[in-house]
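Translate sequence into structure tokens.
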Amino acid sequence: MSRVPVLEIGGTHVTAAVVDTEAGLLAPVPAVRQPVPADAQAGELLDAIADASRYLDLPEAAHWGVAIPGPFDYDAGIGRFRGIGKFESLHGIDVGAELLGRLPAGPRRISFVNDADAFAMGEYRAGAAAGRQRAVFITLGTGVGSSFLDGGQPVGHGPDVPPGGRVHRLTIDGSPLEEVVSRRAVRRFYADTSAVPGGGRVPDVRDIAGLARAGDPHATRTIRHCFGALGRALAPWCERFAPELMVVGGSMTGSWDLLGPAVRAGFEAWAPGTAPPVATALRPADAPLIGAAHWALHRSAGAPPVRT
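Result follows.
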């Protein structure tokens, strides 16, 4: 199996593609990205997810790979979305069975994978972490995504990784990590620090980074505080896991020239010399698709589940 159809389901979109797993490339037909109504009823939402794939040249009776954010029962293919503001109608729904009945070309099987793990496996197979045995992957956007890979496979349990292998479950200074470093947290800290008037527009993270470059002390303090906290939260786990590389992706990496030094300072505050080498993602758009395809290939081969 070298041509693997895949879906990447995000909070506002779905991307469908066919991946050549031998070449590590998307098939010649371009990937199709379409919006999804995250707050729609289950049937409408599932129809929208499946619809993106009808434009592709699909192999018959294929084993699909699907990258989807949590909370989700990835082995059973059942949604566990409750109280998170997206995909609420899929809570308790057998998404795997529903998609098998909607996807074209008579799919044989679907293997689901966490979207951060898919990104990590794609960067391992064909991106910044190619050839690295152990690597940590962080995505910075609405929240903080993460994956710890050993030999190209996610590590979800054990003393060397955070609970579930997910750094968003960590706390820093007594607060959940995403209450300190996430899009909403960064904007909130800047608004509080700079005394943005009530009802005034709070700049987004990219704009705050631009203000810091221009010498705004409130923006500089925001970047150092929020992303320094990320470094301090990651440091003990990187010290345990001992990655050869940390790969960073997500929408905030466009400001990595400012965010990166703040993260490194957080590592140094934990213990000098604990920061691993860092690279930004080489294939930020394709990596989750490539990773989902290799996950399906891995599962088709009857490989054991994620190591514990």
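Note: The helical segments are 42-51, 95-100, 115-126, 183-194, 205-213, 217-241, 256-270, 287-300.
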